Amino acid sequence: NDENDNLDLFEDHAESDSLNSEDEEDNHYTTLLASNNNREKNTLSLLDVKKSYISFILQLREEFFLPKNTTNVISTYIVTLINHLEVLLEEKAFMNQSNILSSTQTSNGMVVELQALKKTMSEISNEIQSTTRNEYQFIKNCQKYFDYHAPEAIPVSTDDEQLEHGYYIPIHRTLSSVLCSKDFSIQIIENIQQQRIAVENDDDLMLSFRDSTFGSRIDDNSLMIQLYMDDIGLTNPIGAKKDHHKMAMIYFCLDDTPEQYRSQLDCIYLVGLCPTSILKVKYLIEIN
After folding, report:
1. For residue 276, what are the contacts with CB-CB under 8 A and spacing of at least 6?
2. Of 15, 133, 219, 253, which is most buried, counting CB atoms within 10 Å of its CB?
3. Tell me, what DSSP letter sits at residue 26?
4. CA distance 182 to 187
């Protein structure tokens, strides 16, 4: 009986974990494929479709790490699907033509001309194809519509060496994006104020660097950041650089972030990365 009870308990936990996992996936896909049902106005332009699709591809590449050739295949198939839909609609229009012409009944329903429908589908297909056909134009559209900024490539090799790059994400751009959230900014300010009050009431407390001897020199209107560096191993299983690569990752977090957010991955921000070997050899060399 004990074994059966343990088995039932295990199955209950497994089923619960499975349901939670499915809920998380559903929420994730809901975020990825946001519906237009919540639009305030009941209109949609071709530009809206273009921006929505660019956002979709950007999320596939940045959040799900799909390579460019994979997103191109997705775009190609969506266009093919639209073409198939166009053919099906055209066939159905011809099949029902005799019924429509012979009908004596009047209808108050809205009718869309087939040619207008085909033109709209063609325009959508063109926008989808142009979104992923040209990498430069795709990045430009992401910058235009979503304030996207690609990491800056910085040469870290000398003229007589094989070209190597490090990549840098400006801290001020990251901070600008983070602090765009009014609620999060308010929580940071409130956290600073609460820590200050707690330290004033207890001389033995030191909740942040602000409370140290040198911390008193920090401007009260400034934010503190902490920089970290870790080495990670990356494996490239294919291609000319098939090997195990060791990379130095530099990242930061806001020291003034409320405690409940500090350990979350989305509150740890990447600053730069480059091969560890180059950083160890040239860490004192100024890079232009």
Report:
1. 231, 246, 247, 248
2. 253
3. H
4. 9
Residue matched to tokens 């530099």: 250
Residue 112, token pair as written in the block: 């869309």
CA dist 121 and 80 (Å) reads: 11
**Amino acid at site 124:** I
pLDDT single digits (tens) 46-102: 899 999 999 999 999 888 888 888 998 999 999 998 888 888 888 777 766 656 555
Structure tokens at 242: 């098939």
Closest CA to 247 of 236, 225, 232, 260: 232
Cα separation, 185 vs 178, in Å, equals 8
pLDDT in tens, 121-143: 888 888 888 888 888 889 889 98
Beta strands of 178-257 (E only): which ranges? 225-236, 243-254
CA angle 30–33–37, rounded 5-degree value: 85
Residue 228's DSSP bridge partners are: 251
CB atoms within 10 A of CB 32: 13
SS (H, E, C) 51-113: HHHHHHHHHHHHCCCCCHHHHHHHHHHHHHHHHHHHHHHHHHHHHCHHHHHHCCCCCCCCCCC
Rounded CA-CA distance 3/8 in Å is 9
Q: 247 in the Ramachandran plot: left (φ > 0), alpha (ψ -120 to 50) or beta?
A: beta
Query: Token pair of 122, please?
Result: 């063609």
